[in-house]
């Protein structure tokens, strides 16, 4: 992964950046829905909190189009940390509601966050910029900017522009996110979250504070989503409210179902599948049968990609409920022929009992 910027074009680097941002968001949703069993349809809302939180904390006050915008002008790295904490705080504010609701009722409540978020993002012009969105300040470390601006950087004959520089930031954050999630799920908190998913009554009897762990899962999931939103803001350079709609939340649900509920690696694999597939179809639409280029009469690349991973969800539910992660585990684990108990062998043996013994 670290060598990819030396060989990939801007199209593939951009696709990889989208996939890494989606992987972080999918890990967070998998902790909430896959491990803890809390259905959430509002993941896009927390991505928006992270993205616009970063733009507000790092941006300066001024005028964008026909509206005045405000900002704190903080260093971008500090703004990143504050945006992630803000997303976690918003998730914590919603956690009392999640503690009172279960199943589909919780899903509908989180769905309301998406519609509320769209209304706020469109009307809070001073923070979000309204319909036209708001530009994101490039990430900067000690005067070195992760953008196409100065200073010019060339490594081994390859020019490191915006996407090459952001690649290593996103990769480092993804690795940290995977390590943190795996340590969380393999330790006592992960076992407690799994117990809450299987049976809240049994978990409470064993001494697990159910309400606290349900809230913790929501906060951690929101922080992962906020971090993914920051990366998207840095990659796009400008975010508009229309991007953070219900379709984005559905995409994240598709990621964790295809990848495998409760698996960190499965969340990453599902995110890559759902994110990269539309890009591949759009890039090679002219050479694929039954797929026309965008704007033509017929099935476009985006629709074809949605049909394909929609069919993938159905196939996973039918033949591999564990998702891609479960499929990999089955391939890695060889089947062993069960041994016949010694007592059964002696009972069915034609030899005398003494000879058998």
From TrEMBL:
**Molecular functions (GO terms):** branched-chain amino acid transmembrane transporter activity
Does the record carry Membrane as a key word? yes
Signal sequence interval, chain numbering = none
Q: How does the protein's chain sit in the membrane according to the entry?
A: Multi-pass membrane protein
- Membrane-crossing ranges are 12-32, 39-57, 77-97, 104-122, 166-185, 216-237, 243-261, 268-287, 307-328
Biased-composition ranges for Low complexity? 334-344
Keywords, in A-Z order: Cell membrane, Membrane, Transmembrane, Transmembrane helix
Any keyword Membrane? yes
Q: Name one Pfam family in it.
A: BPD_transp_2
Q: Where is this region: Disordered?
A: 331-357
Of the GO CC terms on this record, one is: plasma membrane
PANTHER family linked to this entry:
ABC TRANSPORTER PERMEASE PROTEIN, HIGH-AFFINITY BRANCHED-CHAIN AMINO ACID TRANSPORT SYSTEM PERMEASE
Would you tell me the protein name for this molecule?
A: Branched-chain amino acid ABC transporter permease
Q: Which organism is it from?
A: Yinghuangia soli
**Source lineage:** Bacteria, Bacillati, Actinomycetota, Actinomycetes, Kitasatosporales
């Amino acid at each position: 992964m670290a060598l990819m910027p030396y060989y990939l074009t801007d199209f593939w680097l951009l696709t990889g950046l989208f996939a890494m941002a989606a992987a972080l968001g999918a890990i967070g949703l998998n902790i909430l829905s896959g491990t803890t069993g809390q259905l959430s349809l509002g993941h896009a809302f927390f991505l928006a909190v992270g993205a616009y939180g970063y733009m507000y904390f790092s941006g300066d006050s001024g005028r964008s189009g026909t509206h005045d915008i405000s900002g704190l002008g903080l260093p971008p790295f500090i703004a990143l940390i504050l945006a992630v904490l803000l997303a976690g705080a918003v998730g914590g504010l919603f956690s009392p509601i999640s503690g009172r609701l279960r199943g589909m009722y919780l899903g509908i409540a989180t769905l309301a966050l998406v519609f509320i978020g769209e209304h706020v993002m469109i009307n809070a012009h001073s923070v979000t910029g309204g319909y036209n969105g708001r530009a994101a300040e490039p990430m900067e470390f000690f005067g070195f900017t992760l953008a196409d601006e100065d200073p010019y950087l060339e490594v081994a004959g390859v020019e490191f522009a915006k996407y090459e520089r952001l690649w290593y930031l996103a990769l480092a954050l993804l690795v940290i996110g995977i390590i943190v999630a795996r340590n969380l799920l393999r330790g006592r908190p992960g076992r407690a979250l799994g117990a809450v998913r299987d049976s809240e009554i049994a978990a409470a009897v064993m001494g697990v504070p159910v309400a606290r762990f349900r809230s913790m899962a929501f906060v951690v999931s929101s922080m992962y989503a906020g971090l993914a939103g920051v990366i998207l803001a840095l990659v796009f350079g400008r975010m508009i409210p229309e991007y953070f709609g219900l379709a984005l939340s559905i995409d994240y649900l598709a990621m964790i179902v295809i990848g495998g509920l409760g698996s960190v690696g499965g969340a990453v694999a599902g995110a890559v599948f759902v994110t990269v597939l539309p890009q591949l179809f759009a890039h090679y639409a002219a050479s694929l049968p039954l797929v026309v280029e965008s704007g033509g009469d017929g099935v476009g690349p985006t629709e074809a990609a949605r049909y394909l991973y929609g069919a993938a969800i159905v196939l996973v539910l039918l033949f591999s409920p564990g998702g891609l992660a479960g499929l990999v585990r089955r391939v890695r684990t060889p089947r062993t022929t069960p041994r016949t108990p010694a007592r059964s062998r002696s009972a069915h043996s034609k030899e005398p009992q003494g000879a058998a013994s």
